Amino acid sequence: MIFDSYEAYRAAGFRPKVCILGSGPAGTTIARKLGAAGIPVVVLEAGSREFSDESQDFYRGTTVGDFYFDLDITRLRYLGGSSNHWAGWCRVLDKQDFEPKAWAPDTGWPIRRADIEPYLPEVHDILELPDFRPDVPVSDDIRWVQLIKSPAVRFGEKYADELDKSRNIAVVLNTYATELAGDGKRVTGARLWSNGQDAGTFSADYFIVCTGGLENSRLLLWSNQRSNGGVVPNAAALGRYWMEHPTFEGGNAILANYSEFEVDAVNEAFFSPTLAAMERLQIMNFGIRLIETPYAGVKRVIADLACTAPDMAEWAAYQLSQNLRCAAQLYVAWEQAPLASNQIELSKTDVDHAGVPRIELHWKKSDLERRTLVEGLKLFGTTLIEKDLGRVRLMDWIANGEDYPTNEETAGHHHMGGTRMGTDVTRSVVDANCKVHGMDNLYVGGSSVFCTSGQANPTTTITALACRLGDHLSKVVSV
Amino acid sequence: MSFFRKMSRRTLVRAMIALPALSLLRKLPDANAGETGRSHADPDEIVEVNGWILKRSDLA
């Protein structure tokens, strides 16, 4: 069932056991798992069926530190959440991403990759993926990795009909949970905002917060402040260890053989470091996206020339009436080290229309990450030399140690951390089952539980964790 | 017709390849291994020149 207003939902008399906040990939996946298990669940979605400026306005906020996107454009607030602008890149975090790294504090998860692998067949169905393939070593330091481009499933579009027909799932649109109330052991209710006004409180046996990698922290910080610590009793890490995937054009390459690497349908190949290389250089994980432009003959020579002398190549291309570019471009995205200082705070001066403080995001890239960028590209360049595959050129700002440019991709719109998973209550917010430490009926879904970010786009891992949490709750919640 | 339009395509490409190579050589570090006290530079040594990650023998 899908209701367009909270009033319509109340009139229907539906009695849920579980309340999920948010209808993005995590919230929708958990709801479908619970519904299939016969557990009545309500999904409260703050937005409507379509994008609107009015809804996005609730997401405005500020960033302190490095340049970052406006917080109301880097995520979407309507049915299906940010899957509505997802590019569709899929890869599960590497096995090594779950392991602690001696050179990077606060790394390591309380679960291993093997704990989510049983859910990958379900993830393949949900995200409509072909089978994943194993990595292929290029050298002792570099491996070819598969990054699948899915059809970019929009969860709202794909599952609206199924949700509407479900007897166990009620999706309530235009209904914003502004805060949770708690007594330090249980969440006792949620305060709602609907149709531009306070809509009273709502209760259920269990609450699952799936409002996104920024909003989960915001909701819990505000709820905890209003409840005097009654919602997240161990809040030292709440909002902290927030992470992104910094993303920039890293350079160019001239390849000896442009068919050496397997490329996808748009001539892209992906590479990452081996664990041995990461350990030796004490760097984080990274991903290099090599984009080939397969020219032949004179065009190929000029395209290669574009790497070394772009102005000359542009002139030559003009003479040939061709629009050519460097034959292989390199884009780099890398893993951010989890730092407590990268955190989501509540604004002290600005609130949204419902009176909830907006986000003040503190985000800064560290020296370790700069080293990861530089050493990662050098590692790739050295591998191409050793294997006689080609040569790499670093962008000037990287080679010269200059500041990060502000006119490039900047980051992946991947919002991770803030309610990270762990066993130490001073350094984490949820346990290995995504249950908030000290609370009996409060869980968190989505990338905010990530302890580390790896280099892979997060949606695949988000969906696998949601399947796992759905299975866990199916056993915990009594019908 | 301009000077460049009178040149053959082959000549143009050769000239374009040569120019950036000259640029690389101008900034070549440690170009004369004898002056740094080494009798022989390792041709497989990895060097960075103008952002390029190269093998020293690339510069010969």
List keywords for this structure.
heterodimer; A: 479 residues; alpha/beta; elongated; B: 2 strands
Description of the molecule:
The complex is a heterodimer of chains A (479) and B (60). Chain A has a domain at 2-54 and 75-95 and 110-127 and 154-243 and 415-476: 3-Layer(bba) Sandwich (FAD/NAD(P)-binding domain). Chain A is built from 12 helices and 22 strands. Chain A has helices spanning 6-12, 25-36, 53-56, 120-127, 155-165, 215-226, 275-281, 297-308, 310-319, 367-386, 396-399, 459-476; strands at 2-3, 18-21, 41-44, 61-65, 89-90, 136-137, 142-145, 148-149, 169-172, 175-182, 187-194, 197-202, 206-209, 246-255, 268-273, 286-292, 328-334, 343-351, 357-363, 390-394, 410-411, 442-444. In chain A, α2 (25-36) runs parallel beside α12 and α8 (297-308) runs antiparallel to α9. The model of chain A has no long low-confidence stretch (mean pLDDT 93). The termini of chain B are far apart. In chain B, strands 1-2 form a two-stranded antiparallel ribbon. Chain B is of the alpha+beta class and 60 residues long. The A-B interface holds A 251, 298, 301-302, 305, 308-309, 312-313, 316, 319-320, 377-378, 381-382, 384-385, 391-396, 398-399 and B 4-5, 9, 12-13, 16-17, 19-20, 23-24, 46, 48, 50-55, 58. β20 (390-394) of chain A pairs antiparallel with β2 of chain B.
